[in-house]
Amino acid sequence: MKSAYELAMERLNKNAPTTKLTAAQKKALAELDSVYAAKIAGREITLKNELAQVAGEFEKADALREQLATERKKLQAELEEKKDRVRQGK
To answer: Where are the domains of the chain?
Structure first.
Protein backbone atom coordinates (compact mmCIF):
# COMPACT_ATOMS: atom_id res chain seq x y z
CA MET A 1 0.00 0.00 0.00
CA LYS A 2 1.34 3.43 -0.99
CA SER A 3 1.40 6.42 1.29
CA ALA A 4 -0.42 9.64 0.47
CA TYR A 5 2.96 11.24 -0.24
CA GLU A 6 3.89 8.58 -2.80
CA LEU A 7 0.51 8.90 -4.52
CA ALA A 8 0.85 12.70 -4.65
CA MET A 9 4.35 12.42 -6.11
CA GLU A 10 3.11 10.03 -8.80
CA ARG A 11 0.33 12.45 -9.78
CA LEU A 12 2.80 15.33 -9.83
CA ASN A 13 5.19 13.43 -12.10
CA LYS A 14 2.34 12.62 -14.49
CA ASN A 15 1.38 16.30 -14.76
CA ALA A 16 4.89 17.73 -14.87
CA PRO A 17 7.59 15.10 -15.19
CA THR A 18 10.94 15.98 -13.71
CA THR A 19 13.71 16.62 -16.16
CA LYS A 20 17.37 15.92 -15.68
CA LEU A 21 19.58 18.94 -16.10
CA THR A 22 22.98 18.69 -17.73
CA ALA A 23 26.08 20.00 -16.02
CA ALA A 24 26.13 22.92 -18.46
CA GLN A 25 22.51 23.80 -17.63
CA LYS A 26 23.23 23.65 -13.90
CA LYS A 27 26.25 25.91 -14.39
CA ALA A 28 24.20 28.36 -16.47
CA LEU A 29 21.43 28.44 -13.85
CA ALA A 30 23.94 29.08 -11.07
CA GLU A 31 25.55 31.84 -13.11
CA LEU A 32 22.17 33.47 -13.75
CA ASP A 33 21.38 33.35 -10.02
CA SER A 34 24.71 35.00 -9.26
CA VAL A 35 24.37 37.71 -11.90
CA TYR A 36 20.83 38.63 -10.90
CA ALA A 37 21.62 38.56 -7.18
CA ALA A 38 24.34 41.13 -7.94
CA LYS A 39 21.96 43.24 -10.07
CA ILE A 40 19.32 43.23 -7.34
CA ALA A 41 21.87 44.07 -4.65
CA GLY A 42 23.24 46.92 -6.74
CA ARG A 43 19.80 48.44 -7.23
CA GLU A 44 19.00 48.02 -3.53
CA ILE A 45 22.19 49.79 -2.50
CA THR A 46 21.59 52.64 -4.93
CA LEU A 47 17.97 53.14 -3.94
CA LYS A 48 18.69 52.79 -0.21
CA ASN A 49 21.32 55.52 -0.52
CA GLU A 50 18.77 57.72 -2.28
CA LEU A 51 16.25 56.82 0.42
CA ALA A 52 18.66 57.95 3.13
CA GLN A 53 19.02 61.31 1.39
CA VAL A 54 15.27 61.94 1.43
CA ALA A 55 14.73 60.71 5.00
CA GLY A 56 12.32 63.49 6.00
CA GLU A 57 10.33 63.57 2.77
CA PHE A 58 7.75 60.81 3.10
CA GLU A 59 6.28 61.05 -0.40
CA LYS A 60 9.67 60.73 -2.08
CA ALA A 61 10.65 57.93 0.30
CA ASP A 62 7.47 56.02 -0.51
CA ALA A 63 8.09 56.49 -4.23
CA LEU A 64 11.62 55.11 -3.85
CA ARG A 65 10.37 52.12 -1.84
CA GLU A 66 7.79 51.42 -4.52
CA GLN A 67 10.44 51.76 -7.22
CA LEU A 68 12.69 49.30 -5.35
CA ALA A 69 9.88 46.75 -5.07
CA THR A 70 8.97 47.16 -8.74
CA GLU A 71 12.55 46.78 -9.93
CA ARG A 72 13.10 43.75 -7.70
CA LYS A 73 9.97 42.06 -9.12
CA LYS A 74 11.02 42.94 -12.67
CA LEU A 75 14.49 41.48 -12.19
CA GLN A 76 13.09 38.33 -10.54
CA ALA A 77 10.68 37.83 -13.45
CA GLU A 78 13.50 38.36 -15.94
CA LEU A 79 15.63 35.83 -14.06
CA GLU A 80 12.88 33.21 -14.05
CA GLU A 81 12.27 33.73 -17.77
CA LYS A 82 15.95 33.19 -18.54
CA LYS A 83 16.12 30.16 -16.24
CA ASP A 84 13.13 28.62 -18.03
CA ARG A 85 14.89 29.10 -21.37
CA VAL A 86 17.99 27.36 -20.00
CA ARG A 87 15.89 24.49 -18.63
CA GLN A 88 14.21 24.07 -22.03
CA GLY A 89 17.58 24.10 -23.78
CA LYS A 90 16.97 27.25 -25.82
So the answer is: 21-88
